């Protein structure tokens, strides 16, 4: 038996599978994010460990024999978070999350530093780890002075499990401290933000073992002795492992809190100016690239809160098929934007509101705005040489037939919908556990899911959506000027 843990933004999910990758049980526990100031987003590390203890208790209650037979654990987690620990491994402050944007000035300073983009392969975004730690150095110097180690969120959970300071390549690539081409910490990048190599965890490929669950934690979780823990992966790399997106042209579109368009790459091909993320994959000698928008289903959830209708009811009212773009335009920059703008300050907007505009028109505008932002991501990926022919849709937004057909048409890509089952980050983490515990071949282990249906682009509507996308793309500069 193997467990994949997905340390998500809103909760922790544990998936228990057997060696044939059949699902035995799955459990979840939620926790809160605090936002004490504008642009801040923090979580308590103890909430993660408490959630882990809770889900393992529930797994034991449902499948005690299976839990007793667990041989490996893999963890995926939200990326870019900063956990600052003292010399005893105790957190010095809450985790600064991936969507914490307080470090705009520090990110700009690091991004302008010579060789930083060349070595890291990426723009230094305010959400990345290095500028967050630089913010601590500037604003909480006493904490910075006590910092002995900096761990990413899933690496903190692995440290709690094993007592080992470790990270994998995929997650570490999002810190701005890793030489992504060389797959190693860069002393030059570390020095740019006042850090040292000894403050970093040891590096592993995600499919490698970092150690075993410590006896004390094994007792808390009800695990047998000697359970292997894999290095794991950042959430998007783990999701790619879950759907078998490992190499050139394999990809997915994720409609979660944020939106991601990801493709595997067989070689390192960075283009930082595009604001495309170029990261190591969770398995050896592979990379992946992705465009990221910060508010995908978050935009729909925002509308849902304000209209006091559920997201499902809002999208259901649009029907199951598109008929052409609406007259209203929505810019989904509710929390700023990454690809292609790298703009933490930009905010969203509706353009073309009419006195007759109702819930359906607002909903359609929101779905179109998010989809046009994903088209921005596709164009940025193409500029790096990526060549997607088809993508798998995952995440909560993929449950809307209207939205999936809209994405297929705007991106001009067939969208594959998997049959019901597990294929996300938790499964990817469990697959990494199989590789770590059994030394299994990652390519043979991380197969693609069975596809239920493929949604084709609506060719007869392409010209209309292309024109609407062009208008959307031109709107950014105008909204930026108004907000300056």
How are the elements arranged and paired?
Elements lengths: L1 E6 L3 E7 L5 E8 L11 E2 L1 H18 L1 H5 L3 E6 L5 E3 L9 E2 L7 H8 L4 H5 L8 H11 L1 H6 L2 E3 L1 H10 L3 E3 H4 L5 E2 L4 E2 L1 H6 L9 E3 L4 E4 L2 H7 L6 E3 L2 E2 H9 L7 E5 L3 E7 L11 E4 L6 E7 L3 H11 L3 H6 L12 E3 L17 E3 L7 H25 L7 E4 L6 H11 L3 E4 L6 H14 L3 H4 L5 E5 L6 H22 L1
Parallel strand pairs: 1-5, 5-14, 5-15, 9-12, 16-22, 22-23
Antiparallel strand pairs: 1-2, 2-3, 4-7, 6-8, 10-11, 13-14, 16-17, 17-19, 18-19, 20-21, 23-24
Helix pairs in contact: 3-5, 11-16, 12-14, 14-15
Task: Please characterize this protein's 3D structure.
With 484 residues, this protein is an alpha/beta fold. Helices cover 38% and strands 20% of the residues. Strands 1, 2, 3, 5, 13, 14 and 15 form a seven-stranded mixed sheet that branches. Helix 3 packs across helix 5, helix 12 runs antiparallel to helix 14 and helix 14 runs parallel beside helix 15. The chain is globular. It starts with a strand and ends with a helix.
């Amino acid at each position: 038996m193997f467990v994949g843990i997905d340390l998500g933004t809103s909760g922790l999910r544990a998936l228990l599978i057997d060696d044939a990758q059949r699902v035995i049980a799955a459990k979840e526990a939620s926790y809160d994010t605090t936002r004490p100031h504008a642009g801040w987003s923090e979580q308590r590390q103890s909430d993660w460990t408490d959630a882990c203890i809770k889900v393992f208790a529930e797994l034991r209650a449902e499948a005690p024999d299976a839990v007793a037979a667990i041989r490996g654990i893999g963890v995926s987690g939200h990326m870019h978070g900063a956990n600052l620990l003292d010399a005893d491994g105790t957190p010095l402050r809450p985790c600064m999350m991936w969507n914490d944007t307080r470090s705009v000035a520090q990110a700009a300073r690091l991004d302008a530093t010579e060789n930083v983009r060349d070595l890291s392969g990426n723009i230094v975004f305010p959400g990345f780890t290095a500028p967050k730690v630089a913010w601590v150095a500037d604003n909480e110097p006493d904490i910075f002075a006590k910092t002995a180690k900096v761990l990413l969120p899933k690496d903190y959970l692995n440290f709690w499990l094993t007592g080992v300071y470790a990270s994998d390549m995929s997650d570490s690539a999002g810190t701005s401290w890793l030489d992504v081409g060389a797959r190693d910490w860069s002393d030059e990048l570390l020095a740019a933000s006042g850090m040292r190599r000894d403050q970093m965890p040891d590096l592993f490929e995600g499919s490698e073992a970092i150690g075993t669950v410590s006896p004390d934690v094994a007792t808390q979780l009800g695990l047998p002795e000697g359970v292997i823990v894999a290095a794991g992966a950042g959430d998007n790399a783990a999701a790619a492992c879950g759907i078998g997106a490992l190499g050139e042209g394999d990809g997915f579109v994720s409609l979660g809190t944020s939106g991601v368009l990801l493709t595997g790459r067989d070689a390192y091909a960075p283009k930082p100016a595009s604001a495309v993320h170029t990261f190591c994959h969770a398995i050896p000698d592979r990379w992946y690239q992705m465009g990221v928008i910060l508010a995908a289903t978050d935009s729909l959830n925002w509308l849902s809160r304000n209209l006091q209708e559920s997201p499902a009811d809002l999208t259901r009212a649009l029907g199951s098929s598109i008929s052409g773009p609406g007259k209203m335009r929505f810019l989904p920059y509710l929390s700023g934007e990454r690809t292609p703008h790298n703009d933490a300050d930009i905010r969203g907007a509706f353009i073309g509101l009419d006195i007759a505009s109702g819930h359906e028109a607002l909903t359609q505008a929101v779905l179109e705005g998010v989809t046009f932002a994903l088209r921005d991501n596709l164009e940025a990926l193409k500029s790096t040489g990526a060549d997607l022919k088809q993508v798998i849709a995952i995440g909560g937004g993929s449950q809307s037939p209207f939205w999936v057909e809209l994405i297929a048409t705007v991106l001009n890509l067939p969208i594959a919908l998997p049959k019901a089952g597990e294929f996300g980050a938790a499964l990817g983490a469990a697959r990494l556990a199989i590789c770590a515990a059994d030394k299994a071949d990652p390519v043979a282990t991380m197969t693609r899911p069975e596809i239920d249906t493929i949604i084709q682009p609506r060719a007869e509507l392409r010209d209309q959506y292309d024109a609407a996308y062009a208008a959307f793309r031109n709107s950014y500069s105008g909204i930026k000027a108004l907000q300056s």
